[in-house]
Amino acid sequence: MVTQITQGIKISVRTSFEGTYYKNGRLHYAFCYEISIENHSKDSVQLMSRHWDIFDALQNMETVDGEGVIGKKPVLKPGERYSYTSGCLLASPFGAMRGYFNMINFTTTRNFRVIVPSFKLSADFALN
User: Fold this and answer.
1) Which residues form the ApaG domain (predicted)?
2) What is the CA angle 57-58-64, rounded to 5?
């Protein structure tokens, strides 16, 4: 698990390999990631959008931007935690993701960026 705290918001990431799948006649490696967001600040915040850079071992990169996470824009009061699970497909058994969440602080009405630390995606069978 990797963790990082930005402006009182703690992000933790846990990953797992889910298997191989064929999509459009090509083999893909499926990965799952669970993200936990904990508000250690004194203010209520809301996650508004996300940005991901997804890399595989074949030097392919995909960028994903979107509103919220899994169709939600969670509000976290001080001390609250929100977790969600999502996934991605890679063309290789190894890769990584990094990104950030755009959030708003309800007390100051300021937008801020919370970094999601880089995390590795690796298929168990490919590890030595």
Assistant:
1) 3-128
2) 80
pLDDT of residue 127: 63
Domain that holds residue 113: 2-126
Quick check: helix, strand or coil at residue 125?
helix
pLDDT digits (tens, 9 = 90+) for 7-44: 999 999 999 999 999 988 999 999 999 999 999 999 99
Structural domains counted in the chain = 1
DSSP-assigned letter for residue 104: E
Q: Which ranges of the chain have pLDDT less than 50?
A: none
Sequence-ordered list of residues with C-beta below 8 angstroms from that of 9, at least 6 positions apart, any chain: 37, 38, 39, 40, 41, 45, 76, 101, 103, 114
